[in-house]
Amino acid sequence: xxxxxxxxxxxxxxxxxxxxxxxxxxxxxxxxxxxxxxxxxxxxxxxxxxxxxxxxxxxxxxxxxxxxxxxxxxxxxxxxxxxxxxxxxxxxxxxxxxxxxxxxxxxxxxxxxxxxxxxxxxxxxxxxxxxxxxxxxxxxxxxxxxxxxxxxxxxxxxxxxxxxxxxxxxxxxxxxxxxxxxxxxxxxxxxxxxxxxxxxxxxxxxxxxxxxxxxxxxxxxxxxxxxxxxxxxx
Length: 234
Hints:
Blueprint: H1 6-12, H2 14-17, H3 19-22, E1 27-36, E2 40-41, E3 44-45, E4 51-61, E5 64-74, E6 79-91, E7 94-107, E8 110-123, E9 128-137, E10 144-152, E11 154-156, E12 160-172, E13 182-195, E14 200-211, H4 213-217, E15 223-233
Antiparallel strand pairs: 1-4, 1-15, 2-3, 4-5, 5-6, 6-7, 7-8, 8-9, 9-10, 10-12, 11-12, 12-13, 13-14, 14-15
């Protein structure tokens, strides 16, 4: 589930992010290490024929979260670091998260990126959750990317969960040269997680992305990749 843009740093760690409001008043330190068979960002495979290894540390204090992420490409050279923060709050039954981050990529050398992020979660019937996120690049693209999705977590016993999900990606100037809304992709998958202890979790996901008109106009196609990671909470 690793994706290079800040929006996916937030989305990837929904397990830790979504505890911000539940654990308000508590402090937590979380470490995450993930491997992914592809480096996909907004439907684009940024490093064909390469895998990604990412390490993350997050510190939460009530509804505030601060994090740092480091991504390394294997075998293609890639090294980037992102510093980000997030604030969670309720508006009625809706969970809202506001965030911002700065991404540095010294290898290969690229300009730093400043991005803002908004995400909301709304519970539906039968345990399903509707969520949406908005990513905006303030420095380079000066455009937005929107995701709208649905997921449902099923418990298998007390320690194992399965979460199918589907997300529609919409480009609004983030990938394209203008700010017109274009359907970018449909992204679906299945995540499996197992709690080895109260503090240690291992997980994996199978991910399939179907390219829509915006990606096809860029010469991009469908993608299939897998990810696995572990999370430890102090």
